[in-house]
C-alpha cells in the first residue's frame, strides 16, 4: 500500500504513530505538537542519549504548562505516557508519519530518508522540516518520492500556528492533502506552497533581515535602536536582531545563504558579513549566550538610542500632503499646534525653515534644502511608540543637545520642537536618531500611494 491509497482529504488517525527524527529545538517542538494532538510519538536522534534528553526536556516544558495551569497534570501524564525515545531507526517501522528535523544539509537528509524508506511501510508519509532546501532534491534519491513533502514548522513550534506544506515536483497530490489535513487537525494553520527557494515566509523575510543588517553595517544605528524602531513604528513583535538571536544566527544565516545561492546570487538576498562573523565566532544567539546581544546570566537589556525632549514650536506649515504620513497632521493639531497650509510640496516646515519629510530612500544630507529631517514611515502614527529620524548636517541643533528633538507630553499629544527639527510622538512615544549619511533602506519604504507595511 502506498500513501496515495490512504484516501484524499483525510489526515492520519489520532492513534497513529508519529515519529520525529532530530531532537533539537524544532524536533522537540514538533513532537510536543503531535503529543498535544493525542498521537503516540517516538523520538530518534543519531547522537547517543540525545533522544532521551529531548524527552526529558519535553517533560519539563509540559511541567511548566501544568504550573501555569495551561495543562492538567492528568493530560501531562497521558502525553508523557505516549512519548518514547528510541535508539534504533528500525523502531520507527510502525509510523504513519515521520517528520525529519535534522541539520540543514542536503546529503544528510537524503541519507536519512533513504534509510527510512527501507524501514517504514509504503503508506507512511515522509516529511522534511527544511526551511530552505529543495524538497524535490531531498526526495530525488527515493524509490517512491511521491510520499515525501515539506512540513515547515516555525519556532517555537507549539506556539506558532503557521505550517508550510510544500509539494515537491514528484510529490503526490493525495500525500499533500493527507499532510494538510493532519496539520489542520493538530490545530495549526497549514498553507500549501510550491517548492521554491525559501518557500513563502523565508523568502519574504530575507529582505527584512538583510536591510536591517545592512543598516547596521553602514552605521545607521545599533541593533537595539533598529529593533526598537521596527517594533514601535513598524508594528513587528520582534526586530530582526532579537529575532535572529532567538532563531540562532547559524540557522538564520544558513537559510539566507541557501536562498541567495538558489536564486543565482540575487543582490537583495546577499548574506550579511556581520552575521557571518557572528556565526564564525560561535556567537549564535540565545543558545550560546551571545549573538547581537549579550544573553549571559545577569546581562541587562541593551537600551536603544532615544532623543532628549524639547519644547514644541509655535506653529507648523504643511506643504501639499504627506501621503501615507498625512495622519501626522491631525495629531499635531490635536496637540494644540496651529497648522498652516500651502498648496505645493510634500513636507512640513518649522518656523526656522527646517523641512520635515517622509523618508523616500534618499539621504537627508542629499536634500537640496540644507536644513532637513527625514522621518520614518509608521504602520499607524497614532499608536506608534517610536519613530526613526535622520537629519542633515545643516539642521539646527536644539538646546537639549545635538539634534535632539523628541518631547513627550500627554498621551496622544504630538509635539514639535521649537528650535530643532523634530517632535514628540503620541502615547508614550520616543524618537531614535539614525545616521544622516546612510540612505534609509529603500525596501523598507512604501510608495506614497500605498498603505504602510505590516
From TrEMBL:
Residues 357-396 form the 3-hydroxybutyryl-CoA dehydrogenase reduced Rossmann-fold domain. It holds the Pfam family 3HCDH_N. GO terms for biological process: fatty acid beta-oxidation. Keywords: Oxidoreductase. One of its GO terms (molecular function) is 3-hydroxybutyryl-CoA dehydrogenase activity. InterPro entries: 3-OHacyl-CoA_DH_NAD-bd, 3HC_DH_C, 3HCDH_RFF, 6-PGluconate_DH-like_C_sf, 6PGD_dom2, NAD(P)-bd_dom_sf. The keyword Disulfide bond does not apply. SUPFAM superfamilies: 6-phosphogluconate dehydrogenase C-terminal domain-like, NAD(P)-binding Rossmann-fold domains. PANTHER family: 3-HYDROXYACYL-COA DEHYDROGENASE FAMILY PROTEIN, 3-HYDROXYBUTYRYL-COA DEHYDROGENASE. This is 3-hydroxyacyl-CoA dehydrogenase. The lineage of its organism: Bacteria, Bacillati, Actinomycetota, Actinomycetes, Kitasatosporales.
Amino acid at each position: 500500500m502506498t500513501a496515495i491509497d490512504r484516501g484524499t482529504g483525510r489526515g492520519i488517525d489520532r492513534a497513529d504513530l508519529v515519529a520525529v527524527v532530530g531532537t533539537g529545538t524544532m524536533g522537540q517542538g514538533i513532537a510536543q505538537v503531535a503529543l498535544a494532538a493525542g498521537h503516540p510519538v517516538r523520538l530518534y536522534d543519531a547522537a547517543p542519549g540525545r533522544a532521551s534528553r529531548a524527552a526529558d526536556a519535553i517533560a519539563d516544558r509540559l511541567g511548566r504548562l501544568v504550573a501555569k495551569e495551561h495543562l492538567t497534570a492528568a493530560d501531562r501524564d497521558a502525553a508523557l505516557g505516549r512519548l518514547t525515545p528510541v535508539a534504533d531507526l528500525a523502531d520507527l517501522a510502525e509510523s504513519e508519519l515521520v517528520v525529519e528535523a535534522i541539520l540543514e544539509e542536503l546529503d544528510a537528509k537524503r541519507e536519512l530518508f533513504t534509510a527510512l524508506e527501507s524501514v517504514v511501510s509504503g503508506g507512511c508519509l515522509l516529511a522534511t522540516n527544511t526551511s530552505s532546501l529543495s524538497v524535490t532534491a531531498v526526495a530525488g534519491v527515493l524509490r517512491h518520492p511521491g510520499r515525501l513533502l515539506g512540513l515547515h514548522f516555525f519556532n517555537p513550534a507549539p506556539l506558532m500556528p503557521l505550517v508550510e506544506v510544500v509539494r515537491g515536483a514528484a510529490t503526490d497530490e493525495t500525500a499533500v492533502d493527507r499532510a494538510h489535513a493532519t496539520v489542520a487537525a493538530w490545530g495549526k494553520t497549514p498553507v500549501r506552497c510550491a517548492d521554491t527557494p525559501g518557500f513563502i515566509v523565508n523568502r519574504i523575510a530575507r529582505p527584512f533581515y538583510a536591510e536591517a543588517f545592512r543598516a547596521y553595517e553602514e552605521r545607521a544605528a545599533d541593533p537595539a535602536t533598529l529593533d526598537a524602531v521596527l517594533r514601535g513604528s513598524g508594528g513587528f513583535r520582534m526586530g530582526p536582531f532579537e529575532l535572529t538571536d532567538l532563531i540562532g544566527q547559524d540557522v538564520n544565516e544558513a537559510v539566507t545563504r541557501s536562498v541567495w545561492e538558489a536564486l543565482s546570487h540575487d543582490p537583495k538576498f546577499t548574506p550579511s558579513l556581520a552575521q557571518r562573523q557572528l556565526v564564525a565566532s560561535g556567537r549564535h544567539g540565545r543558545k550560546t549566550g551571545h549573538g547581537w546581544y549579550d544573553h549571559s546570566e545577569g546581562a541587562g537589556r541593551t537600551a536603544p538610542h532615544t532623543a532628549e525632549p524639547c519644547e514644541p514650536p509655535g506653529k507648523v506649515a504643511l506643504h501639499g500632503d504627506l501621503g501615507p504620513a498625512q495622519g501626522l497632521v491631525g495629531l499635531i493639531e490635536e496637540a494644540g499646534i496651529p497648522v498652516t497650509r500651502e498648496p505645493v510640496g510634500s513636507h512640513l516646515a518649522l518656523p526656522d525653515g527646517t523641512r520635515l519629510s517622509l523618508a523616500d530612500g534618499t539621504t537627508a544630507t542629499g536634500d537640496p534644502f540644507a536644513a532637513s529631517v527625514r522621518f520614518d514611515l509608521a504602520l499607524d502614527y497614532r499608536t506608534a511608540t517610536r519613530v526613526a529620524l535622520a537629519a542633515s548636517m545643516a539642521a539646527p541643533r536644539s538646546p537639549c543637545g545635538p539634534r535632539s528633538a523628541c518631547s513627550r507630553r500627554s498621551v496622544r499629544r504630538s509635539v514639535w520642537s521649537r528650535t530643532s527639527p523634530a517632535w514628540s510622538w503620541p502615547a508614550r512615544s520616543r524618537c531614535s536618531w539614525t545616521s544622516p549619511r546612510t540612505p534609509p533602506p529603500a525596501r523598507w519604504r512604501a510608495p506614497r500611494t500605498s498603505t504602510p507595511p505590516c
